[in-house]
Design brief:
The chain has helices at residues 8-19, 25-35, 52-65, 94-97, 120-130, 149-152, 167-170, 173-178, 192-204, 230-236, 261-278, 280-305, 313-322, 328-351, and strands spanning 41-45, 70-76, 102-108, 134-138, 155-160, 181-184, 212-214, 245-247, 250-252. It has 352 residues and is of the alpha/beta class. The chain has two domains: 8-191 and 226-235 and 253-279, 3-Layer(aba) Sandwich (Rossmann fold); 306-351, no CATH class.
Length: 352
């Protein structure tokens, strides 16, 4: 069971209300966001078969043994046809599932792309308000598109393993832009050193300096030869300024053998400490909420503006595109105009 100050059944029921958007969830979320309890959220991203669940198990137990109340959110992919999900990640987390200071919650992606669930931001806020001190979010493992976790987590661990691709895979832009710490798992297997070397070589094109915290120097060291992406430098600091910057470390681990876990946890905590000192944690939280507000607004707009009747314009627009009468871009513009008109009518009705 969880620590005695938590009612595990009540926590689970509360999260179910939020995930399923029950009427009671409004008051729950209002209280959660008013609490403003900012705790570290660690995202775990990587392809299927990378050993993410086993790694989450090790990380959660490590931090729980140090006294933290740890919550795990495991996102499982759902069927695009039935919406069902196996929710089986917890079977690989047998140590964490029996630890008295670890709480686990599985969420279905429910068709949401990007590796997360629509409800995950609200679930994180509620867990923080409940008194947890660290949250680990494991994404579905969709591969190179599994990048939305970068807008949710305070620190993203990108997990790689030998045998799943060549050095070109390590250089994919999305992978290099979302990682705050890189973990090469299954380091006891052949090819692990090569994977780590390829990651370091690609990071060399973006960052000079050593892994971890570096003191910036006026354009000292190598210039960025490949990427000048503002997202990278905003999150990790710009080496061209007088402030310190962060170069993501590459840590070789074996989650199954529990080797390298402490080094990986130390790298995560170092990054979180640097991010807090530099004030980038506040910027990251603000960006996270901006994304969440946009998702909620678009979802509510569609939900309120898609009546189930024969007058709906979407089938007509699809037919027009099929017949060559207009392009998809033109149809999208007409559709947005219809949604906007429906939204204004709904607002007027609400205010009447």
């Amino acid at each position: 069971m969880l620590d005695t100050r938590f009612n595990i059944r009540q926590v689970a029921r509360t999260l179910s209300l939020v995930e399923n958007r029950r009427p009671e969830s409004h008051a729950i979320l209002q209280e959660a966001y008013q609490t403003q309890n900012h705790i570290p959220v660690i995202g775990i991203a990587g392809p299927p078969g990378a050993g993410k669940s086993t790694l989450v198990d090790r990380l959660a137990v490590h931090w729980a043994d140090q006294g933290d109340q740890v919550a795990i959110i495991a996102i499982d992919p759902s069927s695009p046809f039935t919406g069902g999900a196996v929710l089986g990640d917890r079977f690989r987390m047998n140590r964490a599932s029996t630890h008295p200071r670890v709480f686990m919650r599985s969420l279905s992606s429910r068709g949401h792309v990007g590796g997360l669930s629509r409800a995950v931001q609200d679930v994180v806020a509620v867990m923080a308000a409940q008194g947890f001190e660290r949250i680990i979010v494991e994404t579905v493992g969709s591969g190179q598109a599994d990048v939305e976790v970068a807008t949710l987590a305070d620190c993203v661990i990108v997990v790689s393993v030998p045998g799943l691709g060549d050095q070109i895979q390590a250089g994919k832009a999305g992978i290099l832009e979302i990682g705050d710490v890189y973990a090469v798992n299954k380091s006891d297997l052949p090819g692990a050193e090569t994977v780590a070397a390829h990651l370091e070589a690609n990071l060399d094109l973006i960052y000079h300096g050593r892994a971890g915290i570096n003191e910036s120097r006026e354009k000292a060291g190598r210039e960025s030869m490949l990427y000048t992406n503002a997202t990278v430098h905003r999150r990790h600091g710009d080496p061209g300024t007088g402030e310190s910057f962060w170069r993501p470390p590459v840590v070789r681990i074996s989650a199954a053998e529990n080797t390298g876990t402490e080094m990986l946890c130390r790298a995560v905590d170092d990054f979180l400490g640097w991010q807090h000192t530099s004030g980038r944690d506040r910027t990251r939280r603000a960006e996270r909420l901006q994304e969440h507000i946009l998702r909620l607004a678009s979802g509510r707009l569609l939900a309120q503006s898609l009546p189930d009747d024969t007058e709906h314009p979407l089938p007509l627009l699809a037919d027009a595109v099929t017949q060559g009468a207009m392009t998809p871009w033109e149809a999208a513009g007409i559709f947005l105009d219809a949604l906007s008109n429906a939204w204004r009518q709904q607002r007027a009705a609400d205010q009447a």
